[in-house]
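Below is a filled-in request sheet from our internal design queue. Each sheet records the structural input a requester submitted and the sequence that came back. We keep these sheets so that new team members can see what a complete request looks like end to end.

REQUESTER: design group, bay 2
PRIORITY: normal
MODE: inverse folding
CHAIN LENGTH: 286
BACKBONE (tokenized):
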């Protein structure tokens, strides 16, 4: 079972200037489909769980599903807790064996965020785990977390100081990106990624990936976005395939759950494969 640390996966990706797809899975079927795509592409992959999904399953059951499905997978995989403002959930996931967490304290003052993130980093280290940090909210609501209001963008100096003093292993900058589908083509501050990587040497995480142009992905990955989050695209693939399958079942009056599951899996795997290839992750497994 090649479960490895987020840091190892992202440090290799940053050095090679390719992106590792980080998919927000929702159940066992989506986990298996993403893993199948990663194996086919010989690519490292990050499986992300939202707080909502963690609470739906419970940490022990969700970790058990993950362990069972990655047991025979022969590409590097890591388990990550996405946007989490709740220290209790973070502690529970770290204790259960999550490999990394995103402590989302962007609503706090920077000084308070820095203090608490430093504590989370220390806690994670005790479990051999790693931490993604954030000081600005990524616009948009995802899994019931976030806001449609844009956050204040901190200066480069403030962001670099936060990264260096907390010891986070990865950082999620706000660059004009947003969760969910974009209502219009986003204007991104790509130079901020380059400046942060040059000043800190750590990989950046690109949030709000669904809906960006291929050229934007390529440019940001080249600049140092080694972790590329994909959530909305997975959910849409899963639910649109479900809708089409159910409509066909209704039309034929033939209700066969395995057919539904097969079409869901195919759609999610196709989506994952497409993003892995786009980000340059194919063939990067070790």
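RETURNED SEQUENCE:
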């Amino acid at each position: 079972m090649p479960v490895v640390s987020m840091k190892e996966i992202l440090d290799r990706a940053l050095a090679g200037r390719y992106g590792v797809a980080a998919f927000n899975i929702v159940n066992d079927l989506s986990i298996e489909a993403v893993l199948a795509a990663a194996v086919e592409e010989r690519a490292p992959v990050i499986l992300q769980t939202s707080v909502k999904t963690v609470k739906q399953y419970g940490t022990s059951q969700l970790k058990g599903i993950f362990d069972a499905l990655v047991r025979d997978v022969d590409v590097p995989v890591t388990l990550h807790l996405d946007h989490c403002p709740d220290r209790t959930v973070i502690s529970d996931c770290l204790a259960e064996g999550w490999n990394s967490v995103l402590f989302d304290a962007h609503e706090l003052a920077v000084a308070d965020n820095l203090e608490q993130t430093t504590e989370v980093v220390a806690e994670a280290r005790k479990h051999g785990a790693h931490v993604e940090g954030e000081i600005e909210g990524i616009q948009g609501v995802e899994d019931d977390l976030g806001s449609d209001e844009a956050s204040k963008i901190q200066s480069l100096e403030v962001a670099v100081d936060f990264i260096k003093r907390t010891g986070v292993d990865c950082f999620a900058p706000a660059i004009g990106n947003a969760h969910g589908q974009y209502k219009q083509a986003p204007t991104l501050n790509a130079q901020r990624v380059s400046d942060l990587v040059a000043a800190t040497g750590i990989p950046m995480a690109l949030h709000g990936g669904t809906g960006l142009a291929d050229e934007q992905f390529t440019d940001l990955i080249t600049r140092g976005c080694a972790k590329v989050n994909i959530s909305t695209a997975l959910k849409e693939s899963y639910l649109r395939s479900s809708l089409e399958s159910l409509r066909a079942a209704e039309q034929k009056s033939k209700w066969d759950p395995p057919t539904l599951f097969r079409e869901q899996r195919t759609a999610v795997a196709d989506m994952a494969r497409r993003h892995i290839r786009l980000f340059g992750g194919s063939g990067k497994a070790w």
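SHEET NOTES:
- The mean pLDDT is 92.
- The CA atoms of residues 4 and 78 lie 6 Å apart.
FILED BY: M.R.
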